Amino acid sequence: MNGATINVLYFAQVAEHMGTRQETQTLDAPVQAGVWLDALTARCPTLGTTGRLKLAINQQHARRQDMIRPGDEVAVFEPVTGG
């Protein structure tokens, strides 16, 4: 992906709330993952609190302080538990 965009992938319930599994978003400058996630939940309040959502940046688990940069792939998903 080129330019000042990111490719965003949504999984499971997150995709249902967002109404899509994938979208491209404009991102002109790097942003902290937590700031970006807060903006996403403000856009779609049915996602709930950001504390329960997980992110991966370029297929690597990310923390709130990690940076999202133009050209990145960002995945948003809920925690998975098993038994």
What's the short version?
The chain is of the alpha+beta class and 83 residues long. The chain is 22% helix and 33% strand.
Can you describe this structure?
18% of the residues are buried. The N and C termini lie far apart (38 Å). The protein has helices at residues 12-18, 33-43, and strands at 5-10, 22-26, 31-32, 54-57, 60-62, 67-68, 73-77. The protein has 83 residues and is α+β, with helices and mostly antiparallel strands. The strands form 2 sheets. The protein has a 5-stranded mixed β-sheet with strand order 2-1-7-4-5. Strands 3-6 form a two-stranded antiparallel ribbon. 22% of the residues lie in helices and 33% in strands. It has a single domain (5-77), classed as Roll (Ubiquitin-like (UB roll)). The protein is globular, with a radius of gyration of 12 Å.
Key structural traits:
83 residues; Ubiquitin-like (UB roll); 5-stranded mixed β-sheet; 7 strands; 33% strand
Order of helices and strands: EHEEHEEEE
Uncertain segments: none
How is the biggest beta sheet arranged? 5 strands, mixed
Mean pLDDT metric: 91
Helical amount: 10-25%
At the first level of CATH, the class is Alpha Beta
Q: Pairing-aware structural class of the strands and helices? A: alpha+beta
Estimate the global geometry from the Cα principal axes. Answer: globular
At the fourth CATH level, what is the homologous superfamily? Beta-grasp domain
Roughly how many Å is the radius of gyration? Answer: 12 Å
CATH topology: Ubiquitin-like (UB roll)
Strand fraction band?
25-35%
Counting structural domains, the number is 1
Going across the biggest sheet, name each strand in turn: 2-1-7-4-5
**Counted beta strands:** 7
Number of helices: 2
User: Termini separation (Å)?
Assistant: 38 Å
Question: Which second-level CATH architecture applies?
Answer: Roll
